[in-house]
Amino acid sequence: xxxxxxxxxxxxxxxxxxxxxxxxxxxxxxxxxxxxxxxxxxxxxxxxxxxxxxxxxxxxxxxxxxxxxxxxxxxxxxxxxxxxxxxxxxxxxxxxxxxxxxxxxxxxxxxxxxxxxxxxxxxxxxxxxxxxxxxxxxxxxxxxxxxxxxxxxxxxxxxxxxxxxxxxxxxxxxxxxxxxxxxxxxxxxxxxxxxxxxxxxxxxxxxxxxx
Length: 211
Ligand SMILES: N[C@@H](CCC(=O)N[C@@H](CS)C(=O)NCC(=O)O)C(=O)O
Description:
Layout: E1 3-6, H1 11-22, E2 30-33, H2 43-46, E3 56-58, E4 64-65, H3 68-78, H4 89-118, H5 126-152, H6 157-172, H7 183-193, H8 196-199
Parallel strand pairs: 1-2
Antiparallel strand pairs: 1-3, 3-4
Helix pairs in contact: 1-3, 1-6, 4-5, 4-6, 5-7
The chain binds glutathione.
């Protein structure tokens, strides 16, 4: 069975898990809890992914796939059921543009988390946190304006990634109140949250493995 290096705390892992569930592959991949600490590169993980990041997928034939985008592409090719995550043509460009927005939001949230919760207090930058907050708000405003497009087209990698990113804001940045003043986006996310794939992959703070 393929092995997915996994954590229930990671939004990029959740993106990959959502794709596996949507494509009917969740039971065909074994998950392995792996602690990828941004402050301490993981020696074992770097043997297969030099960037020491999760999700990383080890296939049975020895190939290793990363990052979440590539794993989602693999799921879309491999899975026999569920929505087409990467459509062809113009629809595909829109889907992947929205995927980029969702992962871009996470690329703001993760360093923000490291800045405020992991770095020694004396090294934390108030200026960088202000930049992260500005980008989060502008991305959420963009999404509010864009919500009718999300409602209008079939579920794809854009919906999956934006939904995962907003759910991560609920998990780690609840105080930022992304729903305030953004009713269309909030309504769209409520529908997203009811999907079985989303229900099956909730974030949680599990005990960290020692190895
Ligand atoms: N672009 C990657 C980002 C993956 C990523 O940054 N994952 C985090 C966990 S949420 C990680 O492994 N961090 C460890 C590190 O940065 O060293 C993806 O989409 O999969």
